[in-house]
Design a protein that fits this description.
This protein is of the alpha/beta class and 509 residues long. The protein has two domains: 271 residues, TIM Barrel; 86 residues, no CATH class. The chain is 34% helix and 20% strand. It contains 15 helices and 21 strands. Strands 1, 2, 3, 4, 5, 18, 19, 20 and 21 form a nine-stranded mixed sheet that branches. A hairpin with a 2-residue loop joins strand 2 and strand 3. The longest helix has 22 residues. The two termini are 45 Å apart.
């Protein structure tokens, strides 16, 4: 009878899975009666899922009389998807290893080292993250700005040939340690001092190792964004590597036609053989340091106090005009004390002075971070629908912006349930299969629901998903992701955190 039972179990195997040759009828998790959205963009289908030893071993119909499972999850009326991948995230896994904000919105893998900033000792940092036992998986880029500082280049606008070679060696060493590519933050210092010859030099080791250059481009303003994208495309062509636009946006641009021009620019690059993608968060407000509104001549290497003394009227005029173009002082919402939760308008009223004087005297270019309501919904929606654009949060556990707690939930709530601009299969692809393909995780058997792949799995009802975070209360956890499984362990079960920390430090192979 035992031999007959094994034969019957083998007969239910489809091309989507294969029963292991040992311990055939004992499994860690059985997920029953769900609709499988496998992350590839293909239509969903009804099937069960078996998990054992951190892997998906079968996606098929399972006769439960023939197997035993340590845990059975009833997914009737729900979808079963890969865990989401946040291609552009922030945070410190050594300080907040649980990363509840991410797993609560279905994210099981995040990528750090963004905007040109990463650990100066990346291999050692990876080992520390591994030892910290995070709740979710962590991948990393090596930061261009950090490499500049390590090499002693810092704010030098014209590093020598040998300095560029030293930086390239540092990039190559970081890639050897397991980084998935190079991130740049060309709107920030010290990245803003770099020129294209340097950027191409640092892209070459990325290209040789099959990595990605992911860039916070030089300028996201409407009149400059396409030139900035063109610079990234040139870097990719010169370095022979794939490129990605970080948190794609058009500051004070408007309309779907404006989005089409950018998408056509990206498509033209693909026709020339350049692999180019982008990531986006689903909000119309950005978030970064207040230095973004100050001119370069009021930031290092210039002395700020001397600039204020010598050029105060010029600085005030610049700030007044720039803030007005960015939808006025009411569109700047501070996220750091002592002004957290207040707009620039409110702070100016409280202090009884013009907002430009507040920026000059009370805050300065390094004195605060803020959310900036500078994007157009129609334009951003058209960008987001493109099949080469994936979801990111650009958020963290501590940032005062709802994107760190709500981005992936909002994609389902807004794009799938409310506007119906995407179906659930398309949305899940943008949040799993596409980022996995972009960075090479598919080759590591991650990012899809497929036999043999890592068991990073979600079970949820799309209609029940809520992004609870708001600008007033940015740290409210998302709701509706009932089951969050990371490497075969339940991190969130029936909507409650389990305390398990089964995440891995991922390294590019």
């Amino acid at each position: 009878m035992k031999i007959l039972a094994v034969m019957m179990l083998a007969s239910i195997v489809t091309i989507r899975g294969q029963i292991p040759m040992t311990e055939k009828n004992s499994y860690d998790i059985l997920i029953k009666h769900g609709t499988i959205i496998d992350g590839s963009g293909a239509p969903g289908f009804k099937a069960d899922v078996l998990v054992k030893d951190q892997k998906i071993v079968l996606i098929s119909d399972v006769d439960t009389s023939l197997i035993s499972a340590h845990r059975t999850i009833d997914a009737t009326g729900k979808v079963v998807t890969p865990g989401f991948i946040d291609h552009h995230a922030h945070g410190d896994p050594l300080k907040t290893p649980e990363f509840k904000n991410f797993s609560a919105m279905g994210v099981t893998t995040i990528f750090l080292g963004q905007d040109g900033e990463s650990s100066d000792h990346i291999a050692e940092w990876m080992s520390q993250v591994e030892a910290a036992q995070t709740a979710i998986n962590i991948g990393s880029y090596v930061g261009h700005g950090s490499v500049r500082n390590q090499a002693g280049v810092k704010l030098d606008p014209s590093p020598s040939y040998w300095a560029r070679r030293k930086m390239a060696t540092l990039v190559d060493e970081a890639l050897e340690a397991g980084c998935f590519g190079l991130s740049t933050g060309l709107e920030y210092q010290p990245g803003s001092f770099s020129k294209i010859n340097e950027l191409i030099t640092l892209a070459k080791p990325v290209g040789k190792r099959g990595g990605v250059v992911s860039s916070h481009t030089r300028n996201e303003d409407d009149e400059a964004v396409q030139n900035s994208i063109a610079e990234l495309i040139t870097q990719g062509a010169g370095g022979g590597c794939a490129v990605n636009i970080s948190h794609l946006k058009v500051v004070y641009g408007h309309g779907a036609d404006r989005a089409e021009a950018i998408l056509q620019q990206m498509e033209a690059a693909r026709e020339e053989g350049i692999s180019i993608t982008a990531d986006m968060y689903p909000y119309q407000a950005s978030y970064t340091g207040i230095g973004i509104v100050f001119p370069d001549w009021a930031k290092p290497p210039y002395n700020y106090e001397q600039v204020v003394a010598a050029r105060r009227d010029e600085l005030a005029t610049y700030l007044r005009e720039r803030i007005q173009r960015r939808n006025g002082p009411e569109a700047t919402l501070f996220g750091t004390a002592p002004w957290a939760g207040k707009t620039l308008t409110q702070v100016a009223l409280e202090l009884g002075k013009p907002f430009e004087d507040v920026l000059i005297d009370d805050i300065g270019p390094k004195g605060a971070s803020a959310a900036y309501f500078v994007m157009d919904q129609e334009l951003q929606d058209r960008l987001f629908l493109d099949p080469f654009i994936m979801t990111c949060s650009d958020g963290s556990p501590t940032m005062r912006h709802p994107r760190g707690y709500g981005s992936f939930a909002k994609v389902i709530r807004y794009y799938v349930n409310e506007t119906k601009l995407l179906n659930i299969e398309q949305a899940v692809y943008k949040m799993s299969g596409l980022p996995a393909k972009t960075v090479g995780l598919v080759e590591q058997h991650r990012g899809l629901l497929k036999a043999g792949f890592a068991a990073d799995i979600l079970v949820f009802d799309p209609d029940a998903i809520e992004d609870a975070a708001s600008f007033e209360n940015p740290h409210e956890l998302a709701r509706g992701f009932d089951w969050v499984i990371v490497n075969g362990a339940v991190v969130r079960g029936e909507g409650e955190f389990t305390g398990k920390r089964p995440g891995k430090m991922l390294r590019k192979s």
